[in-house]
Amino acid sequence: MRILGIDPGLTRCGVGIVDLNTSRRASFVGVHVVKTPAESALPDRLLALETELDDLFGTYKPDVIALERVFSQHNVRTAMGTAQASAIGMLVAARHGLKVEMYTPTEVKAAVTGYGRADKAQVTAMVTRLLNLATPPKPADAADALALALCHAWKGHGRSRIQEHIAKHAVVGAS
User: Fold this and answer.
1) Domain assignment present for 173
2) Total domains, the chain
3) Cβ(166)–Cβ(112) under 8 Å?
4) Residue 40: what are its φ and ψ, rounded to 5°?
5) What CATH number is associated with residue 111?
6) Known catalytic residues?
7) pLDDT digit string, tens, across residues 38-90
8) Average of pLDDT values for 158-173?
9) CB 71 within 8 A of CB 89
C-alpha cells in the first residue's frame, strides 16, 4: 500500500510518501514541500498548490491519502490558509478517486512518538528513526507529512512492528 501524507499549508504544504508492505513495515518513498509565495494572489496560490499536488499524485500513484485535520487556531488567517490547502488536497484526491483519511495533530504525534503532546523535534526524530533516514526531513512540514503517512500505516490495524519500535524508543519523560 502506498500512502501519501499531506500536512496542509498555503505557504508550505508538506507531502510525504511511504510504502507499507505485507509485513506492515513502512519504507520511505519520497518527501516534498510545495511552496507558494505569500505575495501572490490567493487564487494563484491555490492553483499552484493544486497543480503541484496533482503532479505528485500522478507521479507517486498513492492508494490512500492521510491528511491532517484542520483544528482551531488563534490566528484566523493561518487557520483559513490551512483549511484552503486542506480542501485542495481533498479535491485532488477526489479527482484521482482516492480515499482520504484525516487525523488530528494529537493522533499523529501519539502514533509516531507514543505521546500526543510531543514537540516537532520529537516527531522529526521518530520519523527519522522509523524510516531509517540518514538525515532528518526538513522543514518540519516534511517530517509532519511523513508522520501522517506513518500514522495511517497502522491506524486501526493493531500493534505492528513500527509500534513495537516506537515502544522501545518512546519519548523520554512522556507520560
Assistant:
1) no
2) 1
3) yes
4) -75, 155
5) 3.30.420.10
6) 7, 68, 141
7) 999 999 999 999 999 999 999 999 999 999 998 766 677 788 889 999 999 99
8) 52
9) no
